[in-house]
Amino acid sequence: MKRPIIAWAAAALALGLHAPAYADTTLRMFVSSQGSPATHRKIADLYEQKNPGVKIEIELGGTTSEQQAQYLNTVLSSRDPSLDVLILDIIRPAQFSAAGWISPLGEAADAGPMLESYMKAYADANTVNGKIVALPSHADALLLYYRKDLLKKYGLPVPKTWNELAETAKKILAGENNPDLQGLSFQGKAIEGAVCTFLLPYWSAGHKLTNNGKLAFDKDGAVAAFNVWKGLVNDGVAKKNVSEVGTDDTRKEFQAGKAVFASLWGYGWANFQGNDSAVRDKVGVANLPAVDGGKAVSCLGGWEWAVSAFSQHQEEAKKLVAFLSGPEATKIKAIDASYLPPQTALYSDQDIQKKMPWIEGARAVIESAIPRPVTPRYNEVSEVVRTLFNAVVGGSMTPEDAAAQMEARLHRILR
pLDDT tens across 267-283, in order? Predict the structure, then answer.
């Protein structure tokens, strides 16, 4: 571990990200209220200890990517200097950079060792036109959490396909005869997570949404993907009101012992192992299932640190971002809150492996995960996909009608 950390620090120094801290500086850091805000506070406190005279205030954003983006759009479009450091969904850095809302951190050509320390997907997501516009906070991908105690009780293997998951869930639900238990919890609410949910079986069957920024939509593939999720609702595997379920709703349901399976991001693990968890020591983690005849895929997630272009403390903010994205901070996040590290080397760290025994498998999932479409008009693409998906699982639209609308609306956006 020592050599990668030294290489990272040297590259950060080359970018000027380790400039001396200014005394009596207050930096305002925007973070998500979902997950573990206390962990961000712990890291901020550590930074203050290392940099006397610097104080960090934390502003909590909404619980979804959309809520956070809407708020930041308002603040940054008005050139408000009140925020210095921002946490952004992986789909945002390129957009915010194009809008002139975040400050470049340096030239990618000057930061080879640092960029190479990160998983390629995160180095790529934060590099725009040869400039580093953000640095990774943590890696992520959708994972399958399952009740290993219930699978063992009924002698059932971890399902490899969505059809196998449905049959496994139905057997367990019949055996448990518990009206509060559902087979699978997933995000059906019209949020960003619903985009990933829709795309899982679509991608698994080999289809693409875009190709080199152009629409590459397969309508029949979309109908089939919609039918996977609608079928789970119709068969009683997912609950009838799954269209109201958001990301942290899935976390709460599984943590309360009310689901056999859950499709969720990495942060769920730390919550499931807490003292207040009904499933503590009963949880397994696996790759998400594939469609029959397809391959197992996941949706790439993750969050990035950026500096507001309107901050009045540019150098101090850049130094903070360098620390937040460095191995010391990301290791704390992994151990305390099961945030997956963006640095490849940390996946073999023994302290992290002890807290997250499934992390090597998670690395393979992340490295093979598929990113959502890269386009300056992604917000419009997201709205189309998540609202139509929500309508299908909510029962107000058929898969066929939703696929037809999706094709027509995406064609107008990505023509």
Answer: 999 999 999 999 999 99
Strand, coil or helix: 236: coil
Tokens of 121: 């997907």
Residue 236 main-chain phi, psi, to 5 deg: 80, 10
Same domain, 81 and 190: no
Whether 228 has a pLDDT exceeding 90, the answer reads yes
What is the residue range of 341's domain? Answer: 2-140+301-368
**Maximum alpha-carbon separation in the chain:** 64
Counted domains in the chain: 2
Both tokens of residue 203? 């991608």
Decide which of 137 and 62 is more confident.
137
Using alpha carbons, select from 288, 264, 263, 254 the residue that is nearest to residue 162. 288
Kindly give the residue spans of alpha helices, DSSP state H, lying in 15-111: 37-50, 65-77, 93-98
Do 224 and 180 share a domain, yes or no? yes
Q: Are residues 177 and 210 in the same domain?
A: yes
Nearest to residue 410, comparing CAs of 376, 385, 374? 385
- Give residue 64's pLDDT: 83
155 and 244 inside one domain = yes
Q: Are residues 91 and 190 in the same domain?
A: no
The CA-atom distances, in angstroms, between 265 and each of 219, 368, 379, 398 are 28, 15, 21, 28
Same domain (yes/no): 64, 161: no
Lowest mean pLDDT among 46-60, 250-264, 362-376: 362-376
Q: Which of 97, 104, 235, 211 is nearest to 163 (CA)?
A: 235
pLDDT at 213: 79
Q: Domain holding 330: CATH number? A: 3.40.190.10
Spatial distance between the Cα atoms of 398 and 252, rounded to a whole number of angstroms:
29
Residue 365 CA to residue 413 CA, distance in Å, equals 30
Q: Give pLDDT tens digits for 158-200.
A: 999 999 999 999 999 999 999 999 999 999 999 999 999 999 9
* Exposure string over 402-415, b if 16+ CB within 10 A, otherwise e: bbebbeebbeeebe
